[in-house]
Design goal:
373 residues, alpha/beta, 14% strand, 39% helix, Rossmann fold
Amino acid sequence: MNPVPRFALFLSLFVPTATAIAQSGDSVPSREYITRQISQLQRIRTPEGVETVEQVELGGVKQWISVRGLNRANPVLLMIHGGPATPMMPNRWLWQKPWEDFFTVVQWDQRGIGKNAVSADSATTYPTLSLDRVVRDAEELAELLRRRFGQRRIVVLGYSWGSMVGLELARRRPDLLHAYVGLGQAVSSASEVYNYEGVRERALKAGNTEALREIDSIAPYPEKDGSVSLAKAMVVRKWSSVYNGGWYGTPDLGLFYQAGDWGPEYTPQDIEAHLRNGSWGGGGLIPDMFKQDFSKQITRLNVPVVVLQGRWDLYTPYKAAALWVGALRAPRKKLVTFERSGHFLMFEEPGKLLVTLVNEVLPLTRPGPGPAR
């Protein structure tokens, strides 16, 4: 099995340094001190709350989850991270806390990556990596959470690659879900054409001859047969980040890469293992990711759908998501546009994201009039 050494630069957006802060006497605190303070600041103190970091068995493989919320009676929201191989557990401390007032929020490191990488065996785990297997893991986790919290349904929020997992879970098991939320909704490899055209248009408007030369050199993209070259995709995403398609107004994604350095759930060993295993842990899923075409595969869902999309997003292009939502048949559906965001809404417009979850998603978890499900 050959690893994919450049994969982390393309999709695995969590790329921590795996080292403690360099100390200068006693004036610069260590990573251990910082993570301990963050942990204390974010501690769940309500007696009816929940705050755990634990392993659960999904598909015969131990996988780590964190569960946090001020009230166990609140609706469960399972976030399915992107990448592949980009766990959100280590950087959730920056943006998740306000969600925990309204939801019991579950972060899940998918098989082989994140905290799972410490004990993962590539020889046995790599052959199991597929969209179908990750969806089945998600289904098992949803069932586990239903039982644990005594709730008939949960909310599933899929982010980027995780939106493919979440969407397929919603198709297979609508009975498990109050609602499906797509955050940076991925639709198909064919939508990469919107990424290419969008970044070229932005580079042309900016008069960036270097970008245009590099972008034009990879044409056609995608290939004429519809396939996507990883090397070409990396070029497109490089310039997409420069022109607001990643993090709006932030051409260098270094801050996102480093945010997980201070995640209190992660040890330095966890970070080091994830960096070591991230390429095969995510690389095994790339073929499945580029094979999907949900514009044809999923045209109807029996669960309410809310899609949250950055207007400037070129990683999961806005136009493709909007067209898919427009054609979708569902009991309820809504596309919410974030006008000042690219692909990282939780960093770009965190206030609007919280308000949208409270106003558009939370009501779907309550009994009330509407289409029977």
